[in-house]
Amino acid sequence: MKKAVFLDRDGVINEVLTNRVKFVNKPEQMYLLPKVGEAIKKLNDAGYMVFVVTNQGGVGLGYMKETMLHKVHEKMMRDIAEAGGRVDDIVYCPHKPHAGCACRKPEPQMLTRLAEKYQIQLAESYMVGDRDVDIQAGKLAGTKTILVGKEELGDFQFPSLYEAAVWFTKNAY
Fold first, then answer.
1. Is 159 helix (H, G, I), strand (E, B) or coil?
2. CA distances, 116 to each of 54, 91, 156 (Å)
3. Which of 22, 52, 85, 115 has its CA 20 to 30 A from that of 32?
4. So what's the pLDDT on residue 172?
């Protein structure tokens, strides 16, 4: 069985709700947060598979089409690869907020399906997010949790993905 780090996208990997970009609906609105590519490379080098699990209600609300979402993710993957990082897979919930679907975080389905597909040991894995729904999804899936931000919701808390990745290389178990 393998171990993995499941990453939320907006607010962990890329900017959102900043002066430069409110929401990411087009590739040109995808701005990685500082040192994200390097952080993901550190996770890769530490032996973790890396997955992105993201709620993308803008699709269900009609703000973007899934084809555009795929283009956004292609740009994100290219930007991460430029720093030597690799994301093994991306899954997303395209449904509207409050649609009651089983795949939207805080439900754990995106994590559990990836775990089944890639033979991931969830108890040895981590969910990294910037909101309570990310932490709840990780806990429901049986992972350890890391909150990126100032609140103390997860098992661990760091100001950025990069600081979390540095910790992973020294302390993760």
1. coil
2. 18, 13, 25
3. 115
4. 60
Catalytic residues: 8, 10
Burial 46-55 (b: 16+ CB within 10 A, else e): eebbbbbbbb
47-56 residue pLDDT tens: 999 999 999 9
Residue 154 near residue 138 (C-beta atoms within 8 A): yes
Helices 132-141 and 109-118, packing angle to 10 deg: 50
CA distance 28 to 104: 25
User: Is 82 exposed, middle or buried, given 0-12, 13-18 or 19+ CB atoms closer than 10 A?
Assistant: exposed
Contact (Cβ atoms closer than 8 angstroms) between residue 80 and residue 70: no
Write the single-letter amino acid at 153: L
Sign of the alpha-carbon torsion through 140, 141, 143, 148 = negative
What does the alpha-carbon distance between residue 169 and residue 47 come to, in Å, rounded to a whole number?
9
Cα torsion angle, 67, 70, 74, 79, sign: positive
Q: Give the Å distances, CA to CA, from 54 to 47, 100, 123, 134, 170.
A: 22, 16, 20, 9, 27
pTM of the model: 0.96
Are the beta carbons of 10 and 161 closer than 8 angstroms?
no
